[in-house]
Amino acid sequence: MRITAIAIVDANGVIGDGERQPFEIAEDWARFKKVTHGHPLIMGRRTHDAIGRWLPGRATIVVTRTPEAVALPAAGGKATGYAVGSLDAALALAARLDDEVAYVAGGGTIYEQAWPKVTDLDLTEVHAEAEGSVRLPPITPEDWVEVSREPHDGFDFVSYRRR
User: Fold this and answer.
1) With contact defined as beta carbons under 8 Å apart, do 108 and 135 qualify?
2) Would strands 134-135 and 155-162 be described as parallel, antiparallel, or unpaired?
């Protein structure tokens, strides 16, 4: 199974301030929904809370120290959700749900924990700097190769693969 980190980042790797991401770009959100649809989506509790809802069309797996405190979506609804106590539990569940790919959608702690296992990056790289102290781990040429770039006005959709 491929493990793909998906994020919107500024020119310096900033992904947010611990509460929210610094950019809201309609094309980014549309692309996020398109590429993650049908695949497990792993995120931390604060990222899930920032999104504010369960996303339909994909199994969302929330990693939290208190999984029992997460209100899961109603059975039979459009969204499927799980809450687990560790990234390893989330990855194991994702592998049972989909043998192709799982997406890791943050926040900073989840990206850091997942980074050694991430095989691909699916990024929206914004051509601006943002306020915030939460960063994506470094993308070094020794570890990552750019495999595609789709330029847009003010941002690029960029894919990387681990070497």
Assistant:
1) yes
2) unpaired
